[in-house]
Design goal:
Helix content is about 50%, strand content about 15%. It has nine helices and five strands; from the N terminus they run βαββαβαβαααααα. The termini are far apart.
Protein backbone atom coordinates (compact mmCIF):
# COMPACT_ATOMS: atom_id res chain seq x y z
CA UNK A 1 0.00 0.00 0.00
CA UNK A 2 1.08 3.55 -0.72
CA UNK A 3 0.47 6.39 1.75
CA UNK A 4 0.64 10.05 0.73
CA UNK A 5 0.38 13.01 3.14
CA UNK A 6 -0.54 16.45 1.83
CA UNK A 7 -0.74 19.30 4.31
CA UNK A 8 -0.41 23.07 4.56
CA UNK A 9 -2.47 26.25 4.61
CA UNK A 10 -2.05 27.02 0.89
CA UNK A 11 -5.22 25.19 -0.15
CA UNK A 12 -4.95 25.97 -3.84
CA UNK A 13 -1.68 24.06 -4.03
CA UNK A 14 -2.96 21.29 -1.74
CA UNK A 15 -5.96 20.67 -3.98
CA UNK A 16 -3.80 20.80 -7.09
CA UNK A 17 -1.61 18.01 -5.72
CA UNK A 18 -4.69 15.97 -4.81
CA UNK A 19 -5.97 16.43 -8.35
CA UNK A 20 -2.67 15.17 -9.74
CA UNK A 21 -2.89 12.04 -7.58
CA UNK A 22 -6.55 11.45 -8.50
CA UNK A 23 -5.73 11.67 -12.21
CA UNK A 24 -3.94 8.32 -11.93
CA UNK A 25 -7.13 6.51 -10.87
CA UNK A 26 -10.47 5.61 -12.37
CA UNK A 27 -13.05 8.04 -10.85
CA UNK A 28 -15.11 5.04 -9.72
CA UNK A 29 -12.12 3.81 -7.72
CA UNK A 30 -11.77 7.04 -5.70
CA UNK A 31 -13.41 7.47 -2.28
CA UNK A 32 -13.25 10.76 -0.38
CA UNK A 33 -13.99 10.89 3.36
CA UNK A 34 -14.17 14.20 5.23
CA UNK A 35 -13.25 14.40 8.91
CA UNK A 36 -12.49 10.68 9.12
CA UNK A 37 -12.78 9.53 12.73
CA UNK A 38 -11.71 6.38 14.49
CA UNK A 39 -14.81 4.60 13.17
CA UNK A 40 -13.37 4.70 9.67
CA UNK A 41 -13.29 1.44 7.69
CA UNK A 42 -12.13 0.70 4.16
CA UNK A 43 -14.73 0.54 1.42
CA UNK A 44 -15.05 -2.49 -0.80
CA UNK A 45 -12.90 -2.58 -3.95
CA UNK A 46 -14.23 -0.95 -7.09
CA UNK A 47 -15.77 -3.30 -9.61
CA UNK A 48 -14.09 -1.39 -12.42
CA UNK A 49 -10.52 -1.00 -11.28
CA UNK A 50 -8.01 -2.92 -9.19
CA UNK A 51 -6.25 0.28 -8.17
CA UNK A 52 -8.06 2.18 -5.42
CA UNK A 53 -7.56 5.62 -3.91
CA UNK A 54 -8.99 6.71 -0.57
CA UNK A 55 -8.68 10.38 0.42
CA UNK A 56 -8.98 11.03 4.14
CA UNK A 57 -9.42 14.60 5.31
CA UNK A 58 -8.23 15.52 8.82
CA UNK A 59 -8.12 11.96 10.26
CA UNK A 60 -7.29 11.33 13.91
CA UNK A 61 -4.32 9.27 15.07
CA UNK A 62 -6.36 6.07 15.47
CA UNK A 63 -7.46 6.31 11.85
CA UNK A 64 -3.89 6.89 10.73
CA UNK A 65 -2.85 3.74 12.62
CA UNK A 66 -5.54 1.78 10.74
CA UNK A 67 -4.15 3.11 7.48
CA UNK A 68 -0.64 2.02 8.40
CA UNK A 69 -1.86 -1.48 9.30
CA UNK A 70 -3.61 -1.95 5.95
CA UNK A 71 -1.64 -4.22 3.60
CA UNK A 72 -3.66 -4.10 0.37
CA UNK A 73 -1.06 -3.68 -2.42
CA UNK A 74 -3.56 -2.07 -4.81
CA UNK A 75 -4.58 0.62 -2.32
CA UNK A 76 -3.31 4.21 -2.09
CA UNK A 77 -4.40 6.36 0.85
CA UNK A 78 -3.98 10.11 0.58
CA UNK A 79 -4.18 11.90 3.92
CA UNK A 80 -5.04 15.58 3.67
CA UNK A 81 -4.81 18.26 6.33
CA UNK A 82 -5.97 21.81 5.63
CA UNK A 83 -3.35 23.15 8.02
CA UNK A 84 0.39 22.79 8.49
CA UNK A 85 1.34 19.87 10.74
CA UNK A 86 4.01 20.94 13.20
CA UNK A 87 7.05 18.73 13.75
CA UNK A 88 5.67 17.89 17.18
CA UNK A 89 2.51 16.39 15.65
CA UNK A 90 2.06 12.74 16.66
CA UNK A 91 0.42 12.03 13.31
CA UNK A 92 3.30 13.53 11.35
CA UNK A 93 5.89 11.66 13.43
CA UNK A 94 4.06 8.36 12.88
CA UNK A 95 3.79 8.86 9.13
CA UNK A 96 7.46 9.79 8.89
CA UNK A 97 8.32 6.54 10.67
CA UNK A 98 6.65 4.47 7.93
CA UNK A 99 8.33 6.47 5.14
CA UNK A 100 5.19 8.20 3.90
CA UNK A 101 5.43 10.36 0.77
CA UNK A 102 4.90 13.89 2.16
CA UNK A 103 4.02 17.16 0.41
CA UNK A 104 3.88 20.49 2.28
CA UNK A 105 2.29 23.60 0.78
CA UNK A 106 2.59 26.76 2.84
CA UNK A 107 3.54 29.51 0.40
CA UNK A 108 3.54 29.82 -3.38
CA UNK A 109 3.83 32.43 -6.06
CA UNK A 110 1.39 30.60 -8.30
CA UNK A 111 -1.66 32.40 -9.58
CA UNK A 112 -4.69 31.71 -7.41
CA UNK A 113 -7.73 30.02 -8.90
CA UNK A 114 -10.11 31.58 -6.34
CA UNK A 115 -11.03 34.69 -8.38
CA UNK A 116 -12.34 32.28 -11.03
CA UNK A 117 -14.38 30.39 -8.43
CA UNK A 118 -15.81 33.66 -7.12
CA UNK A 119 -16.93 34.59 -10.63
CA UNK A 120 -18.67 31.24 -10.91
CA UNK A 121 -20.34 31.73 -7.54
CA UNK A 122 -21.68 35.08 -8.71
CA UNK A 123 -22.73 33.60 -12.10
CA UNK A 124 -20.52 36.19 -13.79
CA UNK A 125 -20.27 35.37 -17.51
CA UNK A 126 -16.73 36.76 -17.54
CA UNK A 127 -15.80 33.55 -15.73
CA UNK A 128 -15.36 31.93 -19.14
CA UNK A 129 -12.47 34.31 -19.90
CA UNK A 130 -10.93 33.57 -16.51
CA UNK A 131 -11.43 29.86 -17.16
CA UNK A 132 -9.27 30.02 -20.30
CA UNK A 133 -6.41 31.58 -18.34
CA UNK A 134 -6.75 29.11 -15.49
CA UNK A 135 -6.89 26.14 -17.85
CA UNK A 136 -3.58 27.16 -19.40
CA UNK A 137 -2.07 27.73 -15.94
CA UNK A 138 -3.33 24.68 -14.06
CA UNK A 139 -4.81 22.14 -16.49
CA UNK A 140 -8.15 20.38 -16.58
CA UNK A 141 -7.72 17.88 -13.75
CA UNK A 142 -6.89 20.59 -11.23
CA UNK A 143 -9.87 22.68 -12.33
CA UNK A 144 -12.15 19.66 -11.90
CA UNK A 145 -10.83 19.21 -8.36
CA UNK A 146 -11.40 22.89 -7.57
CA UNK A 147 -14.92 22.84 -9.01
CA UNK A 148 -15.77 19.94 -6.71
CA UNK A 149 -14.31 21.95 -3.80
CA UNK A 150 -16.32 24.99 -4.94
CA UNK A 151 -19.56 23.02 -4.59
CA UNK A 152 -18.61 21.25 -1.36
CA UNK A 153 -17.85 24.50 0.46
CA UNK A 154 -21.45 25.62 -0.17
CA UNK A 155 -22.74 22.53 1.62
CA UNK A 156 -20.03 22.13 4.26
CA UNK A 157 -19.25 25.39 6.02
CA UNK A 158 -15.45 25.88 6.04
CA UNK A 159 -13.92 25.45 9.49
CA UNK A 160 -11.21 27.96 8.70
CA UNK A 161 -11.25 31.32 6.97
CA UNK A 162 -12.38 34.87 7.63
CA UNK A 163 -15.90 36.12 8.31
CA UNK A 164 -15.72 37.86 4.94
CA UNK A 165 -15.13 34.53 3.18
CA UNK A 166 -18.03 32.89 5.00
CA UNK A 167 -20.34 35.78 4.14
CA UNK A 168 -19.23 35.58 0.51
CA UNK A 169 -20.08 31.88 0.35
CA UNK A 170 -23.49 32.49 1.96
CA UNK A 171 -24.20 35.12 -0.69
CA UNK A 172 -23.16 32.79 -3.51
CA UNK A 173 -25.40 30.01 -2.17
CA UNK A 174 -28.38 32.09 -3.26
CA UNK A 175 -27.51 31.13 -6.85
CA UNK A 176 -27.17 27.42 -6.10
CA UNK A 177 -29.97 25.33 -4.66
CA UNK A 178 -29.08 22.03 -3.01
CA UNK A 179 -30.65 20.20 -5.97
CA UNK A 180 -28.45 22.14 -8.42
CA UNK A 181 -25.35 21.48 -6.34
CA UNK A 182 -26.14 17.75 -6.27
CA UNK A 183 -26.75 17.70 -10.03
CA UNK A 184 -23.55 19.61 -10.79
CA UNK A 185 -21.47 17.36 -8.53
CA UNK A 186 -22.70 14.35 -10.50
CA UNK A 187 -21.81 16.13 -13.73
CA UNK A 188 -18.28 16.72 -12.41
CA UNK A 189 -17.85 13.02 -11.64
CA UNK A 190 -19.29 12.05 -15.01
CA UNK A 191 -17.05 14.53 -16.84
CA UNK A 192 -13.99 13.24 -15.01
CA UNK A 193 -14.90 9.66 -15.92
CA UNK A 194 -15.55 10.46 -19.60
CA UNK A 195 -12.26 12.36 -19.92
CA UNK A 196 -10.26 9.50 -18.43
CA UNK A 197 -12.04 6.95 -20.62
CA UNK A 198 -11.28 8.98 -23.74
CA UNK A 199 -14.97 9.62 -24.42
CA UNK A 200 -14.50 13.40 -24.56
CA UNK A 201 -11.53 15.72 -25.05
CA UNK A 202 -10.41 17.23 -21.74
CA UNK A 203 -10.79 20.93 -22.48
CA UNK A 204 -14.14 20.45 -24.18
CA UNK A 205 -15.46 18.45 -21.24
CA UNK A 206 -14.35 21.00 -18.65
CA UNK A 207 -15.59 23.91 -20.80
CA UNK A 208 -19.06 22.39 -21.06
CA UNK A 209 -19.05 21.82 -17.31
CA UNK A 210 -18.19 25.46 -16.56
CA UNK A 211 -20.91 26.59 -18.97
CA UNK A 212 -23.43 24.39 -17.15
CA UNK A 213 -22.46 25.88 -13.79
CA UNK A 214 -23.03 29.37 -15.20
CA UNK A 215 -26.42 28.45 -16.67
CA UNK A 216 -29.56 29.45 -14.83
CA UNK A 217 -31.21 26.00 -14.94
Amino acid sequence: MNIVLVHGSFQSAVLKKIGEVKSNFDPLAVTEISDAGSGFSYSSPSLFSEKRLIILENPDLKTVEKVIEEKSPELTVLIKFSKYLEKSSAILKRLVEVKTEIFVFEESDQTSVFPFLDMLGNLNKKAMVEFERNYLEFGGQYILTMLAYFLRRMVQRPKTGSDFMRQKIEFQKINFSLDKITQLYRVILDTDFRIKQGLIEEKLGVTLLVQKILSAD
